[in-house]
Design a protein that fits this description.
The protein is α/β, with parallel strands linked by helices and 264 residues long. The protein has two domains: 87 residues, no CATH class; 172 residues, 3-Layer(aba) Sandwich (Rossmann fold). It is built from nine helices and seven strands; from the N terminus they run H-H-E-H-E-H-E-E-H-E-H-H-H-H-E-E. A seven-stranded mixed beta sheet has the order 3-2-1-4-5-7-6, sandwiched between helices. Strand 4, helix 5 and strand 5 form a beta-alpha-beta unit. Helix 1 crosses helix 8 and helix 2 crosses helix 3. The chain is globular and about 55 Å long. It starts with 16 loop residues before the first helix and ends in a 7-residue tail after the last strand.
């Protein structure tokens, strides 16, 4: 199955911001409910420890990503760790709720942050969850090269995969919204209307979920991108991580200066 560079609806500039926030809130609820990235906590902890960073800059954070759960696990090992949420179109309401729930261990950057041109004041271990596939190979290369040029480590994690099984799972993911939407916070009547009366949000979640799978890079494709970078002093780890056979593997890419110790 070849990678397809197609659009996701909620990331388009013409997509209404209120619809985008409802979509990212729904995706956030799903990530929290399923604890989709819980299994990579030890891998991420090892990578952060190996680089000596005490600050994480998460890019394309959407509704907050998996950080509320992950931060609790990481704080057990590194209590002084500070996590920054950023996005090109930041959902500030969602970011604020995550900040409060984390007791200020997680904070956020209010301005727009382009992952290809991260502001120089945002220094720390860069992460991306379920977002690297949004970018074309040229843009993906620019994201990694920007981290290298800024001498920052970077870790990318993708739970979506270009396989029939993962694509098929997008359908129950979208249908779950018809059961769980009343539980999503903050409660909004508009979200109910966009789910039950005119099911825009479930449609967008399904459409974008399928497209996400079709756009996701495989490990070999990540290696090909890495091969085009100017990064003589960087080391890269690429693979698929799964803690149990029944869990879908999570594709990862971790890059750090060679002076750091390998996270393995």
């Amino acid at each position: 199955m070849r990678r397809i560079q197609f659009i996701e609806l909620h990331e388009q500039p013409w997509f209404p911001s209120s619809f985008r926030d409802d979509t990212t809130d729904a995706l956030q609820f799903g990530l929290n409910f399923l604890k989709a990235y819980a299994g990579i906590a030890p891998l991420l902890q090892s990578a952060v420890d190996s680089t000596g960073n005490r600050s994480i800059v998460d890019m394309c954070s959407g509704g907050g990503g998996p950080w509320l759960d992950l931060s609790r696990k990481l704080q057990m090992e590194a209590p002084a760790l500070q996590i920054w949420l950023t996005d090109k179109c930041p959902n500030l309401g969602a970011f604020q709720r995550v900040k409060v729930a984390s007791k200020n261990h997680i904070t956020f950057y209010r301005g727009s942050v382009d992952a290809m041109k991260v502001p120089p004041e945002l220094k720390g271990f860069r992460t991306m969850f379920s977002s690297f596939h949004h970018f074309s190979p040229e843009e993906a290369r620019a994201i990694l090269q920007n981290a290298i040029d800024a001498s920052q480590s970077i870790a990318i994690f993708e739970i979506t995969r270009r396989t029939p099984l993962t694509i098929s799972l997008m359908f129950p993911w979208a249908l779950m919204l018809f059961l769980c939407t009343p539980l999503i916070r903050p409660f909004r009547w508009s979200r109910l209307l966009r789910t039950y009366l005119i099911p825009i949000i479930p449609f967008v979640v399904l459409f974008d979920g399928v497209v996400s799978c079709l756009r996701t890079y495989r490990p070999q494709e990540l290696r090909e991108i890495i091969g085009t970078l100017t990064a003589a002093e960087y080391q890269w780890e690429i693979g698929e991580h799964s803690r149990t056979p029944r869990k879908l593997p999570i594709t990862y890419l971790i890059g750090y200066p060679r002076l750091s110790v390998s996270p393995k």
